[in-house]
Design brief:
Elements lengths: L2 H29 L6 E4 L6 E5 L2 E5 L8 E3 L22 H23 L1 H10 L10 H13 L3 H16 L7 H6 L12 H30 L1
Helix pairs in contact: 1-2, 1-5, 2-3, 2-5, 3-5, 4-7
């Protein structure tokens, strides 16, 4: 497979995983009676923005490494007023937790559908160790790029879904797992324990170098 095709499918898989998470979180929250104010798919330059169903939808497909769903304040560039507080805080604690967990659980279901139930679940469970195993990262990325080279797109989608879901459920503040960890203090963020706040620094020290190394390895595997 040519490099341009590899880059395209890598972009497509990354966008599919993050967009599916954002859309499912918006759907889960809306089913609980709390609509988001903004659903942003991707990062980078804005391609399309529209308002639909009381939600602002923004498409930023150039950088597919993340999407976001906002529940506080008015939509960006919108004249209408909305509560400044996080709308998720209106939910009972259990439903708030479900809004965080269910979208990532959906990605695990996608992995199980693509890889088989046992293999998908196994890939999800081993995904929690991925950011801490630098020595195994080159081989993992080589195998993933090999899947793309051989057109095994369904398997690659399942693998990416499993690993991304696991990593985001780690108990780190900038991830979904960190949001779950902070739920008991959601109405009193100033009372968040020092140890929980200190996890921010640990998260950055672990994830930023790991993410940079992973991007380097992807580039090396594709452009060598």
């Amino acid at each position: 497979m040519e490099r341009a095709a590899l880059l395209f499918w890598l972009w497509m898989l990354a966008f599919a995983v993050t967009a599916l998470w954002a859309l499912s979180q918006a759907a889960v929250a809306s089913s609980f009676g709390v609509r988001p104010t903004l659903v942003k798919l991707g990062y980078g330059p804005n391609l399309v923005t529209l308002s639909l169903g009381g939600i602002q939808w923004a498409l930023h497909p150039l950088i597919p490494l993340g999407s976001s769903v906002r529940f506080n304040g008015p939509p960006e560039d919108a004249p209408t007023e909305a509560p400044a507080d996080n709308r998720l805080h209106r939910l009972p604690l259990v439903l708030h937790a479900a809004t965080i967990i269910v979208p990532w659980a959906l990605l695990v279901v996608v992995a199980m559908a693509c890889l088989g139930a046992g293999e998908g679940l196994s890939q999800f469970l081993t995904g929690f160790t991925v950011p801490f195993q630098y020595s195994r990262l080159p081989d993992r990325i080589e195998r993933f790029v090999a899947l793309l080279r051989h057109g095994e797109l369904l398997q690659a989608w399942g693998l990416a879904s499993a690993k991304v879901a696991a990593i985001n459920l780690l108990p780190m503040p900038i991830l979904a797992g960190g949001s779950l960890l902070a739920l008991p203090w959601r109405h009193q963020r100033e009372r968040l324990p020092v140890w929980a706040a200190g996890l921010n620094l640990v998260t950055l020290l672990i994830l930023l170098p790991w993410a940079g190394y992973a991007l380097y390895l992807f580039g090396a595997a594709i452009f060598r």
